[in-house]
Amino acid sequence: MHGIKEVDVSTLQSYLDEGKKIRLLDVRGVAEMAQGMIPNAEKLPLHTLPARLNEMDADEMTVLYCRSGARSAQGVGFMAQQGFDNVYNLRGGIIAWAQNGMPLMT
Predict the structure, then answer these.
(1) What is the mean predicted confidence (pLDDT) over 31-58?
(2) Which of 7, 33, 52, 75 is deepest in the core (most CB within 10 A)?
(3) Domains of the chain: which residue ranges?
C-alpha cells in the first residue's frame, strides 16, 4: 500500500534484540492468534483498533502484523490518519516471521 511504512522481519528482530522499545500488535482474529503469536505481542483484533486507539502512545514505535500484512497495513493506514507517525506494518506478516525461523508462542 502506498504511503504505509513497513519494517521487514530481520529489521524487527534486530530492534527487539537491541532492546528497542516497540509495541507489537497482533491484529488477526482470536482463532488465528491461537495458532501462534510473535512473543510479547499484544492481542488487538483489527476491528477493535478504533475503540482502543486512546490506549496508544502516538510517539511510541508500534508495529502491527497479521497473517500476510494486508490487514495490518489497513491498521497502519488508519493509525497514520489519526496522527500516529511512528507506526509500521510487518512486511509479510506472521507468515514471513515464521518462514524466517523466528520464534512463535502459543
Answers:
(1) 96
(2) 75
(3) 6-99
pLDDT of residue 2: 56
In angstroms, rounded to a whole number, what is the distance separating the alpha carbons of residues 90 and 88? 7
6-99 CATH, one of 3.40.190.10, 3.40.640.10, 3.40.250.10, 3.40.190.170: 3.40.250.10
Catalytic residues, which ones?
A: 66
3-state secondary structure the chain: CCCCCEECHHHHHHHHHCCCCCEEEECCCHHHHCCCECCCCEECCHHHHHHHHHHCCCCCCEEEECCCCHHHHHHHHHHHHCCCCCEEEECCHHHHHHHCCCCCEC
| Nearest to 89, CA basis, from 46, 31, 57, 50 | 46
Mean pLDDT score across all residues of the chain: 95
92 grid coordinates? 509479510
